[in-house]
Amino acid sequence: MPLVFRPYSLFKIHAESKKDDPVIVGFLNRREFAILSASAKTGKSMLALRVAIAIASGKKFLGFDVVPGKVMYLQTEISDFELRKRIEKMLLSLTEEDQDAVNANVHISTYRLKLDRPENRESLKSVLLSEKPDLLILDPFYELHSATFKEDSSDDVAPLLREIKKIAHDTGCAILLIHHQGKRGEGFTPSSPSHSHRGSSSFGDVPDASISMIRKGGNTLNIKADFRNRPALNPIDFQMTEDDLDFQLIHSTNSVMKMNPEETLLSLFAESDSNKYLSSILRDKFCTRTGLSTSMFNKVLKQLRDTGQIFTERRGRDQMLTFSENQPLEIIVTQQAPKERGVLRSSGHVTSQSGAGHENQQ
């Protein structure tokens, strides 16, 4: 039998190792398998749709930068009619250009694929290799396995999750699995995201990322995330709009989140009690936080002055920079930045597969 285990030198491993290949910067990378769990009626599917729209349009997701790309969304819980109605309402807030991007890059199927069957996993893998999405969303898990599958059995759960994880690695796309949290009483807060998932402990042991979402009260929600190979996220608070179709960030202090230079400069004003800075002090803070040059600081400052967001007042050899009181401070995330629709594309229009797709495979 040929030798299958070949150790490598540390130098070779370092030379051939790959950097993070993000889909959502600091949150989810390609080839990673993540599980998001929340209680019923918390907004799991709405959050998943917002993830898809953000990646397809290149817009930020809860303050995180995204890398624009293609998303496949296997949605088996919401009816075709309700799904189409939700997506159409979500798209109303987007520009025509962004709507076109979503139409071109989000492909949804409502086919109930039973992933505990090897032939179905091979079929899914074949589609992913052909279509090359950046992210696959599977929603929800309980609709994606046979009736005999036991979610509380590690003998059932662990092998299937490892196979899904292998599909992510082999195809190069990220996979986000939507699952339910365990029913442990109203107001229950899991000790960590990896302990929040319903069923077997394998739900927390196997994936590269465990994400939990809880309702803190009213429309306020909270997300936490643990990762296998990098530090956990600080908690993220956000609100669901009254129509349950969008989310608004309230607070986050995650250093992995990345701002553009204009946002970084405005965030420094948000950190100041008086909304004022001497130019020299602001310049030093900006350059330290971003690693950018003084000339870039001057360029960004000029842009903000030209738009009326910042005005200046001479103070000796320096200038006092003041954020305009007529401009609301929109940057509420302050952190140190480091150095919609059809598996099935439909000629640029968002559609859902129907018909045989609603026949469960038993």
Compile the SSE list and pairings:
Blueprint: H1 10-16, E1 22-24, E2 28-29, E3 33-38, H2 44-57, E4 71-75, H3 80-91, H4 96-105, E5 106-109, H5 118-131, E6 135-139, H6 154-171, E7 174-180, H7 202-205, E8 209-217, E9 220-227, E10 236-240, E11 247-251, H8 261-271, E12 276-278, H9 279-290, H10 294-306, E13 310-315, E14 318-323, E15 352-353
Parallel strand pairs: 3-7, 3-8, 4-5, 4-6, 5-15, 6-7
Antiparallel strand pairs: 1-2, 8-9, 9-10, 10-11, 12-14, 13-14
What keywords describe this structure?
2 domains; 362 residues; alpha/beta; disordered C terminus; 32% helix; Arc Repressor Mutant, subunit A; single chain; ten-stranded mixed β-sheet
Descriptive overview:
The chain is of the alpha/beta class. The protein has 2 domains: 20-258 and 339-358, Rossmann fold (3-Layer(aba) Sandwich); 261-323, Arc Repressor Mutant, subunit A, CATH 1.10.10. It contains 10 helices and 15 strands. It has helices at residues 10-16, 44-57, 80-91, 96-105, 118-131, 154-171, 202-205, 261-271, 279-290, 294-306, and strands spanning 22-24, 28-29, 33-38, 71-75, 106-109, 135-139, 174-180, 209-217, 220-227, 236-240, 247-251, 276-278, 310-315, 318-323, 352-353. Strands 11-10-9-8-3-7-6-4-5-15 form a 10-stranded mixed beta sheet. β1 and β2 form a beta hairpin. The longest helix is centred in the middle third of the chain and has 18 residues, at 154-171. It is elongated, with a radius of gyration of 23 Å. The two termini are 39 Å apart. Residues 326-362 have low confidence and may be disordered.
